[in-house]
Design brief:
The protein is mainly α. The protein has two helices and two strands, in the order E-E-H-H.
Length: 174
């Protein structure tokens, strides 16, 4: 007699572990459950006409989802580390550039102050020059009169001419 569900040969005679009289090969018999009844005497049920089939090994569980999630987690962790490193690097670069900018601003402010001081000194110098030039124009008449007096004295001009030049010199130079 054959089982039509999985086409395995079955023995029609009870199995007692001995050789079968059937022409078809027989599957090895599965161990029969043993029950204890009373005071430790084992009870073995009567053998049945059908043997228990040997089960196939359990199928390997598919952990594809877990592997994919693990790989993605590692990749995301690596990406987070890379971006964290880039952030810290850029932050330190930003701090360095900010410090340079503060130094440049300070230098620029110092130069601005020096420029305004120089402009103020230049204005003061221009005013002093203008004052000196106006004074020099006033002294020019004194100079011209002194030169004329000198020529008159050396040239032998009279006392009257020298006296009048002396008075002009006194009024021009005072």
């Amino acid at each position: 007699m054959t089982d039509t569900a999985d086409d395995r040969p079955r023995s029609t005679q009870p199995s007692n572990g001995g050789p079968s009289t059937s022409q078809q090969p027989e599957w090895p018999a599965a161990p029969q459950p043993v029950a204890y009844v009373g005071e430790g005497t084992p009870y073995s049920p009567e053998p049945t006409t059908e043997q228990w089939p040997v089960s196939a090994p359990p199928a390997k569980s598919k952990k594809t989802g877990l592997v994919v999630v693990s790989i993605l987690a590692v990749l995301f962790l690596g990406a987070a580390g890379a971006f964290g490193g880039l952030y810290l690097s850029e932050k330190s670069d930003h701090n360095a550039v900010s410090a340079q900018l503060v130094d440049k601003d300070k230098t620029l402010a110092d130069k601005d102050k020096a420029l305004s001081d120089a402009a103020q000194k230049a204005d003061t110098a221009v005013k002093a020059q203008q004052a000196a030039e106006s004074k020099a124009l006033g002294y020019q008449a004194c100079h011209d009169t002194a030169v004329a007096l000198l020529h008159a004295a050396v040239g032998g001009a009279g006392d009257a001419a020298a006296g009048s030049l002396g008075v002009q010199l006194f009024t021009a130079c005072s």
